[in-house]
Write a structure and sequence with these properties.
Distance between the termini of chain B: 36 Å
Helix content of chain B: under 10%
Structural class of chain A: mainly beta
Largest sheet of chain A: 6 strands, mixed
Distance between the termini of chain A: 21 Å
Largest sheet of chain B: 7 strands, mixed
Order of helices and strands of chain A: EEEEEEEEEE
Number of helices of chain A: 0
Number of strands of chain B: 11
Shape of chain B: globular
Radius of gyration of chain B: 13 Å
Strand content of chain A: over 45%
Radius of gyration of chain A: 13 Å
Structural class of chain B: mainly beta
Number of helices of chain B: 0
Helix content of chain A: under 10%
Order of helices and strands of chain B: EEEEEEEEEEE
Oligomer: heterodimer
Strand content of chain B: over 45%
Largest interface: A-B, 27 and 30 residues
């Protein structure tokens, strides 16, 4: 598969544990944030989004938290599974531009 | 099936030989965009289009051109490719640039410029 990042921060978790992936964004005026998952050899896939007027949003097994005070976004994955192994990107929307973070690699240990 | 289709998926070319990477979406999306992905740099936006005949530069537009003559197609043109354009390229589309919906990505096009 394609290598999406040779020197990415890596988070290693035990299968069944919860994962927390963090992201710092740059523009305090950004009004929309998205988390993407990218598996090897594939394009990024939408996971969950959150608007700047919210501080928490939950999906199926995933929760996104937004702290605008410190410009921090996190993705929580409950009961992490082997299929969750991937690179995760946060992205912020500002003036119709989508700006991606550099990504975090999640490894799930059996 | 709703999808974004890029071609070619893999291409090796030489410096200066013009090439086009096609992108087509079948979801009637208004917004389309091109990104390049390089190790350690994440995804960077090259160009985007809010609708037919409307295109704008992203963060790294140098050396690239785009056109949006039809809603479904958004080709990326490298008039004179150089080795620093060796990268993994992704096309994406969404319902609108106002981010009312999610961004759908293609499978990627791996370009090598010798």
């Amino acid at each position: 598969g394609e290598s999406v990042g040779l020197h990415l921060p890596t988070l290693s978790v035990q299968e069944g544990d919860n994962s927390i992936i963090n992201c710092a964004y740059s523009n305090s005026a950004s009004d929309y944030f998205i988390w993407y998952k990218q598996e090897s050899g594939k394009g990024p896939q939408f996971i969950i989004d959150i608007r700047s007027n919210m501080d928490k949003r939950q999906g199926q097994r995933v929760t996104v938290l937004l702290n605008k005070t410190v410009k921090h976004l996190s993705l929580q994955i409950a009961a992490t599974q082997p299929g969750d192994s991937a690179v995760y990107f946060c992205a912020e929307i500002s003036s119709y531009k989508l700006i991606f973070g550099s990504g975090t690699r999640l490894l799930v240990r059996p | 099936e709703a999808q974004v289709t890029q071609n070619p998926r893999y291409l090796i070319t030489v410096t200066g030989k013009k090439l086009t990477v096609t992108c087509s979406q079948n979801m009637n999306h208004e917004y389309m965009s091109w990104y390049r992905q390089d190790p350690g740099l994440g995804l960077r936006q090259i160009y985007y289009s809010m609708n037919v005949e409307v295109t704008d530069k992203g963060d790294v537009p140098e050396g690239y051109k785009v056109s949006r003559k039809e809603k479904r197609n958004f080709p990326l043109i490298l008039e004179s490719p150089s080795p620093n354009q060796t990268s993994l390229y992704f096309c994406a589309s969404s319902l609108s640039g106002g981010w009312a919906g999610e961004l759908f990505f293609g499978e990627g096009s791996r370009l090598t410029v010798l």
